[in-house]
């Protein structure tokens, strides 16, 4: 037994706020034991006894004690104060039985003495050694703790210790010896992250080796490293091996094929980061290393039983009891050839149950599976604890979220037991996400998502489980059936309540291309998925719309005053008590984050101390007020309560109380605002951690963008963000009933959001059906509900009728594939018809090619044919479009109203054509159209065409014309329709609608009653036909606004800094697309810079926005700026994106000007620079009294106006550049003739070229001096960029290296009076880099005072007698000229 008496410590330093609460820990061979914490004490006295059981093993001579003193924190990590290491060599050799250590000096992480003295004593009690120093062993080889004892040997813990020898332990040599450390990195398991590329770095005795880079979360390395050292054995055994992915372990003599538990050394509370299998061996001169024995089946290796315990971790036997009750909503996974055959012969197929599910559970290398239930999408396993099989979905239970460390586990101080708890969960449903649910026989391109790699794009079912944990004990059986009593208890956790969801789509913009018509689908779970027939039909999709060009760069959907609406009803468990708590904590965290951002901005802007104190006090007062007033709801009487709910409630209450007390103490004691930022940021991080809810059984809301029937982009929204609550206003979701901006993303996007598929503005509301009437207070506009169908006709022999329809029905849905009849439409329950069927054209599907353009070019192709060698004659279709479809002749094409022809018809010469504009080809059956074209005529060419163009320009907006009969025309049966009939049209259609109204008139919430189908399905119709009707026979809901408001937007784009280089010369040619709702503009291109200054105002006139201006003022749409690199060849490359909220001015008399602020530019989730931007949005009134137009720079470019642009001053920059050192090769060639180029604020200066860097690496001249206009305010100052250019043969001048420096620390005021302050400013540049020679200057010399120059003018003035102008010329005794 090793007994450690922890006595006291003296001289512990004070914290920034108050005194620390010191706690001491002693670590011996990986086992850690702690004392109690002493509250608010600088000289603590513990006098506690900590005992370590040696378990019969002798005390090793290399043993030592680690003493660590920390500042105890109730929540979060204890803060490190100091540590010390005590060798137990004298105890091991038997020189003494007691080892006192008085006034030990503690050191910090950098091994620097911190002035704290620590006192303790160590005693070795009897029983550890036999008589006469005989060793007692429990089996295994000496020095090889990794080799397990064999059965029947003394390694059996039930047997008594056996004396093995009478020799003493050999003392370690006291002189350096040669050793070899062999480290074999075998494989890793369960490494966290998505699409990771792990690499292992091994550091031993100052030497570092690294493995090759692998891919995936379970990489296989199998690499051996050798470290040769010469050192004292005692020092070697005191050293550490550092393996970074990251774990630190004490050196042993041999560890064979052991698993290491990886953790983050900087954040021990983050939990395990995976496992790494290694072998470690130390051999001396002449030693034979042990051999490795590889197991046959290491894939099923039990990690826990073969785990090497890291330092500071004590393992205890724990039994995890996981009850798996049932699953539901499993998607189809089987091809079901038999089912297809049944359908062919008229039988019935049930595709929704084509899945044979079983559940696989893995933890720490152990894996168990439930039984398989065949052909069941909602299986019930009722089992206890738990190929090429198809994976339906994967989810993870993070132990850090369902457990908390406390006294029950680690024997912590009193008062923490009530916070700590063992892992627990449920009974509760776990949601599965992965690839889209639609089954095809083709390989799934998103299959990786089902393995949990990346964000799942669709709901794929859920599993009802319960987890409990027992200390000690061992399970008799790994798999067992759950008792019927437990099944009955779990029934109450499956009670469902009805939820209602409404989503109003206000805008859809920033589309990259027009393409096919677009619709949006909203689903929660299976409810609303239009391609899944397992749920009741719902109005879960918007109407199809075609994209329109915004006149600059993007496309948008022209919804105008009629916004599409989506309605869903679904059934889930009532977990409002959990989500209310989450929303309240998130509300507090969001308010704190907003105040913290304001404080950081003020610090960056160098605001006055009074202003900083005011902002800081507001933050602290809001924090105390929020934590005191907004309490999480009590759990008494709540349904679906679990043991984890109770424990999390205690944890949250304790954490909130702790943060509140810290805030009060900070308010009383703080003296430095900037010093408190760390604590405030820590509070924010804690609040966000407390807001994580593991038992969230309501699935996320998923929005899909569909082009035709193809899923293109998605967005996942947590249900709590839009959930309505009756508990309090703060318990409602952040976006409940509020319009939010959503940037959708592509599934498994390799570019990680470099391009946005679409930007949505959506207003969503989710609540219990019992609270539907509360929706009335959130709704805007007037809701209208219609049934709709399309009448189709074809033209045959010049007459319109139904006889020529191919694959279409007389009356159908919008796709034309589903047959509909007026008499079969029936309104849903509680709804009734209002009026008869009427014709109402769908304007969103009329795709005029010139929509959104101010300039447009009409095109038509003239076609001619011939026999081989014959004369060219007009083709059967003399005029066509680019696809070869019939088109009007140039003479028949009229200029539309509101447009003006710019030129006559001409042929396009900017193509591969001959001098007359013809291109030639050979027709190929079956469509008799050439597949390729050439500019030179050959004898075998039998077809040629000429592209005719005529430009036109828009001169006025045209009013909407009378729809007439409401027909839409098309030359093909497809999606491209137009209003005016053309001679080439062969198909037409028109939309019929019939309005519905609620029978009880309960307001906007009546839309939640729209459940079920509108069309009665014929009893003889097959299930397949019934499934096809889903989505075609649901009502269309829209929200109409009576009035629109006109706005005027100005975006001030001043500059950017630290952008990423896109060109080979390490520069970029940046410009920005600036988008706001359905309008966009583009800045000018700034060439060859990473710190461009645009100084440009973009003016958007007459932006039409529907909705209450007050709502826009409180929640305005963001201005989105997308940066691109302009390339002369190829497509422009994206450089990143940033968003800026505009300042909304409903009253033009408001005098507050927007302030330019730095907004981060991100690309692929990483920082890509910053932009200095501001924007203001004006509501235009009848007077239309807008601010003055900013000054122009050129014909169309406006500058940033005074009052908003930074105030600049002429600034001189002086750089002392001595030379270059340690230049590496660039493009396989050495750097021989470099020069230095300096860029700042658009000005560039360059040194002379070093002719031969090997002979003389210094510049010919050291001083670079230039003047530039820079902002007075430091927060606006652009950086200075240093680039090294190598002058190579044939005029090549590649940039071989560059760096960016901030100018703020080098500023110097030339008129400063305080010599000491001036001195510190002058030498800041020299002191910035450690190791540079600092020139000490005399205090008496003015820093910026230059010696007066003596030149030819001085001699002239001295000669003519103007002595006041000649300076010190005469004093120096120089000669003068004789003036005649």
TrEMBL record:
The species this protein was found in: Hucho hucho
Location relative to the cell: Cell membrane; Cytoplasmic vesicle membrane
Protein name: Myoferlin
Bilayer topology term: Single-pass type II membrane protein
SUPFAM superfamilies: C2 domain (Calcium/lipid-binding domain, CaLB)
Start-end of Basic residues biased regions: 163-172
Chain residue ranges for the region called Disordered: 128-173
Keyword annotations: Cell membrane, Cytoplasmic vesicle, Membrane, Phosphoprotein, Repeat, Signal-anchor, Transmembrane, Transmembrane helix
Annotated InterPro entries: C2_dom (IPR000008), C2_domain_sf (IPR035892), C2A_Ferlin (IPR037726), C2B_Ferlin (IPR037720), C2C_Ferlin (IPR037722), C2D_Ferlin (IPR037723), FerIin_dom (IPR012968), Ferlin (IPR037721)
Gene Ontology terms describing biological process: plasma membrane organization
Domain C2: 1-101, 1031-1159, 1189-1316
Family listed: Belongs to the ferlin family.
Pfam families xrefs: C2, FerA, FerB, FerI
GO cellular component, one term: plasma membrane
Main location: membrane
């Amino acid at each position: 037994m090793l007994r450690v008496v922890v006595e006291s410590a003296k001289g512990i330093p004070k914290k920034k706020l108050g005194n620390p609460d010191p706690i001491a820990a002693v670590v011996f061979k990986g086992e850690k034991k702690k004392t109690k914490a002493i509250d608010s004490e600088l000289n603590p006295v513990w006098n506690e006894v900590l005992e370590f059981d040696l378990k019969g093993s002798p005390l090793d001579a290399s043993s030592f004690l680690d003493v660590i003193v920390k500042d105890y924190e109730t929540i979060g990590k204890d803060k490190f104060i100091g540590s010390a290491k005590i060798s137990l060599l004298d105890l091991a050799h038997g020189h003494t039985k007691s080892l006192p250590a008085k006034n030990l000096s503690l050191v910090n992480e950098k091994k620097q003495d911190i002035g704290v003295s620590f006192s303790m004593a160590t005693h070795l009690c009897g029983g550890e050694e036999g008589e006469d120093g005989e060793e007692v062993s429990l089996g295994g080889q000496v020095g090889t703790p990794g080799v397990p004892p064999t059965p029947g040997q003394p390694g059996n813990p039930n047997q008594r210790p056996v004396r093995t020898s009478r020799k003493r332990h050999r003392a370690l040599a006291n002189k350096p010896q040669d050793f070899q450390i062999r480290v074999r990195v075998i494989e890793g398991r369960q490494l966290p992250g998505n699409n990771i590329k792990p690499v292992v770095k091994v550091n031993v005795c100052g030497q570092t080796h690294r493995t090759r880079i692998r891919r995936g979360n379970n990489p296989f390395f199998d690499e051996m490293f050798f470290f040769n050292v010469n050192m004292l054995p005692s020092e070697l055994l005191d050293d550490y091996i550092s393996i970074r992915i990251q774990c630190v372990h004490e050196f042993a003599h041999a560890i064979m094929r052991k698993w290491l538990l990886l953790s983050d050394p900087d954040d021990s509370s983050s939990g395990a980061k995976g496992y790494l299998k290694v072998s470690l061996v130390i051999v001396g001169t002449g030693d034979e290393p042990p051999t490795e024995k590889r197991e046959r089946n290491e894939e099923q290796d039990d990690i826990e039983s073969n785990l090497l315990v890291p330092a500071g971790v004590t393992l205890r036997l724990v039994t995890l009891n996981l009850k798996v009750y049932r699953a539901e909503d499993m998607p189809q996974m089987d091809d079901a050839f038999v089912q297809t055959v049944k359908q062919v012969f008229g039988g019935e197929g049930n595709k929704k149950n084509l899945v044979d599910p079983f559940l696989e559970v893995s933890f720490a290398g152990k894996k168990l599976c439930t039984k398989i239930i065949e052909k069941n999408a909602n299986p019930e396993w009722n089992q206890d604890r738990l190929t090429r099989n198809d994976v339906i979905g994967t989810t993870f239970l993070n132990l850090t979220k369902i457990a908390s460390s406390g006294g029950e586990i680690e024997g912590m101080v009193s008062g923490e037991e009530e916070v700590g708890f063992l892992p627990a969960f449920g009974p509760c449903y776990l949601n599965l996400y992965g690839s889209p649910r639609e089954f095809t026989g083709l390989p799934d391109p998103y299959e990786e998502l089902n393995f949990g790699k990346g964000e799942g794009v669709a709901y794929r079912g859920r599993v009802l489980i319960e987890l409990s944990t027992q200390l000690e004990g061992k399970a008799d059986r790994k798999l067992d059936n759950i008792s019927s009593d437990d099944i009955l208890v779990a029934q109450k956790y499956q009670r469902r309540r009805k939820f209602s969801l409404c989503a109003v789509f206000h805008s859809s913009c920033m589309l990259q291309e027009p393409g096919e018509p677009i619709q949006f689908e909203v689903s929660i779970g299976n409810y609303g998925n239009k391609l899944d027939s397992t749920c009741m039909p719902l109005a879960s999709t918007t109407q199809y719309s075609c994209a329109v060009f915004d006149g600059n760069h993007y496309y948008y959907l022209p919804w105008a005053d009629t916004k599409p609406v989506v309605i869903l009803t679904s059934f889930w468990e009532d977990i409002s008590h959990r989500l209310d708590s989450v929303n309240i904590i998130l509300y507090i965290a969001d308010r704190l984050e907003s105040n913290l951002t304001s404080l950081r901005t003020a610090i960056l802007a160098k605001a006055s101390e009074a202003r900083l104190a005011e902002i800081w006090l507001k933050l602290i007062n809001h924090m105390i007020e929020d934590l005191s007033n907004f309490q999480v709801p009590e759990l008494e009487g709540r349904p679906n309560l679990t043991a984890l709910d109770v424990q999390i409630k205690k944890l949250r209450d304790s954490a909130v109380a702790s943060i509140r007390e810290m805030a009060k103490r900070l308010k009383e004691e703080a003296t430095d605002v900037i010093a408190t930022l760390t604590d405030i940021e820590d509070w924010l991080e804690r609040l966000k951690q407390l807001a994580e809810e593991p038992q969230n059984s309501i699935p996320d809301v998923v929005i899909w963008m569909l082009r035709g029937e193809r899923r293109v982009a998605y967005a996942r929204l947590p249900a709590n963000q839009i959930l309505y609550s009756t508990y309090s206003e703060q318990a409602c979701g952040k976006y409940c009933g509020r319009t939010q901006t959503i940037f959708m993303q592509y599934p498994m996007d390799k570019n990680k959001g470099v391009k946005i598929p679409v930007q949505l503005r959506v207003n969503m509301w989710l609540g219990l059906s019992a609270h539907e009437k509360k929706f009335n207070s959130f709704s805007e506009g007037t809701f209208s509900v219609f049934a709709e169908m399309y009448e189709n006709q074809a033209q045959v022999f010049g007459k319109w009728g139904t006889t020529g329809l191919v694959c279409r029905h007389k009356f159908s849905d919008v796709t034309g594939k589903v047959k509909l009849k007026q008499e079969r439409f029936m309104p849903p329950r509680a709804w009734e018809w209002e009026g008869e069927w009427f014709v109402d054209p769908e304007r969103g599907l009329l795709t005029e090619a010139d929509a959104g353009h101010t300039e447009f070019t009409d095109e038509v192709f003239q076609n001619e044919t011939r026999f081989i060698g014959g004369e060219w004659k007009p083709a059967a279709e003399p005029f066509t479009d680019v696809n070869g479809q019939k088109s009007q002749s140039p003479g028949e094409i009229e200029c539309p109203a509101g447009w003006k022809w710019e030129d006559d018809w001409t042929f396009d010469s900017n193509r591969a054509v001959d001098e007359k504009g013809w291109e030639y080809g050979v027709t190929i059956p079956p469509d008799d159209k050439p597949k390729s074209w050439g500019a030179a005529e050959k004898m075998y060419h039998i077809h040629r065409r000429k592209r005719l163009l005529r430009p036109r320009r828009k001169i006025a907006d045209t009013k909407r014309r009378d729809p007439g009969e409401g027909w839409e025309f098309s030359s093909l049966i497809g999606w491209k329709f137009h209003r005016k009939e053309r001679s080439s049209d062969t198909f037409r259609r028109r939309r019929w609608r019939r309005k519905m109204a609620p029978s009880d008139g309960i307001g906007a919430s009546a839309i939640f009653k729209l459940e079920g189908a509108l069309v009665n399905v014929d009893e003889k119709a097959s299930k397949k036909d019934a499934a096809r009707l889903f989505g075609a026979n649901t009502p269309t809901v829209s929200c109409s606004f009576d009035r629109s408001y006109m706005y005027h937007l100005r975006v001030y784009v001043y500059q950017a800094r630290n952008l990423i280089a896109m060109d080979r010369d390490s520069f970029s040619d940046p410009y920005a697309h600036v988008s706001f709702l359905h309008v966009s503009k583009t800045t000018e291109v700034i060439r060859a810079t990473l710190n461009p200054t645009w100084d440009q105002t973009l003016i958007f006139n007459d932006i039409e926005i529907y909705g209450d201006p007050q709502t826009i003022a409180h929640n305005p749409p963001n201005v989105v700026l997308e940066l691109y690199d302009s390339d002369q060849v190829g497509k422009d490359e994206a450089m990143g994106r940033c968003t800026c909220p505009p300042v909304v001015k409903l009253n033009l008399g408001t005098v507050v000007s927007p302030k330019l602020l730095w907004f981060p530019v991100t690309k692929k989730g990483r920082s890509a620079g910053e932009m200095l931007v501001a924007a203001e949005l004006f509501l235009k009134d009848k007077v239309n009294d807008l601010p003055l137009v900013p000054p122009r720079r050129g014909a169309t470019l406006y500058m940033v106006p005074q009052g908003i642009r930074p105030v600049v001053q002429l600034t001189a920059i002086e750089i002392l550049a001595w030379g270059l050192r340690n230049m590496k090769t660039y493009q396989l060639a050495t750097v021989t003739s470099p020069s230095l180029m300096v860029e700042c604020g658009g000005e560039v200066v360059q040194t002379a070229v070093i002719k031969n860097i090997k002979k003389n690496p210094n510049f010919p001249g050291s001083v670079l001096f230039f003047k530039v206009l820079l902002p007075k305010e430091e927060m606006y100052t652009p950086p200075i960029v240093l680039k090294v250019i190598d002058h190579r043969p044939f005029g090549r001048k590649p940039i071989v290296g560059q760096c960016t420096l901030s100018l703020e620390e080098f500023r110097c005021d030339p008129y400063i009076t305080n010599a000491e302050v001036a001195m510190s400013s002058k030498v800041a540049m020299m002191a910035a880099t450690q190791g540079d020679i600092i020139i000490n200057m005399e205090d008496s010399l003015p820093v910026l005072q230059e010696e007066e120059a003596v030149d030819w003018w001085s001699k002239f003035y001295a000669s003519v007698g103007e002595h006041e102008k000649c300076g010190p010329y005469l004093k120096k005794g120089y000669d003068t000229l004789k003036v005649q």
